[in-house]
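Practice problem: Interleukin-1
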Amino acid sequence: MSAQVQKSPLDTDSQGHKQYAESAPNGTLCDTANKYWMLVDKTVVAVPKSSNTNPDIFTLMPNRDPTAVEKGKPVYIGIQNKDLCLCCEDSGGQPVLQVKDKKIMDLYHNGDKSNCFRFYQNKSGSDTHSFESVAHPGWFICTSPHTEEPVSLTDKRGETHFTDFCFELK
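Answer key — structure tokens:
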């Protein structure tokens, strides 16, 4: 289930022509151990899938820069209706995953010169994808095998953390 950009009417211009905005699909993200991503106090954590789970809805907005496709499909990962996006920044010499105040449409229209908000989305299985940091190549978004721990980054795919995720359209 890959994110495809769709055009939807947003407004009309001064001549009455419809203006179109790019939109991307929204959905939940779940690791292969059935833990959903949820925002808790500006930290994304992985919680077990259950009838009580109310996962946040994420947007995978494609990057408009046509030169940024060498390792996969570059996307921005935003949290729907919150003006928050995932970001990969350096902290003490190691990349860390953070949630930053940023409108995903600002990134889409204006780009991300630092690349810290961009992730390569790659198909990793029949229904799963991985997300590699563009700013820190070789570092992937991951979840812990333990529940309710923060979604983070790893440079050791397939060892102790989950790096494959299902994107379930909503």
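Discussion: Confidence is low (pLDDT under 50) at residues 1-21. Students who identified this feature from the tokens alone can consider the problem solved.
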